[in-house]
Amino acid sequence: MVDVARRAGVSVATVSHVLNETRPVRPGTRKAVLDAIDDLGYIPNTLARSLVTARTRSIGLAVSAISNPYFTEILQGVESSALERGYGLLIADPHDDPAHELTVVRLLHERRVDGVIVAPSAEPAGLLEYLARREIPAVFLDRLVGDAHDQVCAENARPVEQLVGHLADLGHTRIGLVAGCLA
Question: How many structural domains compose the chain?
Answer without folding.
Answer: 2
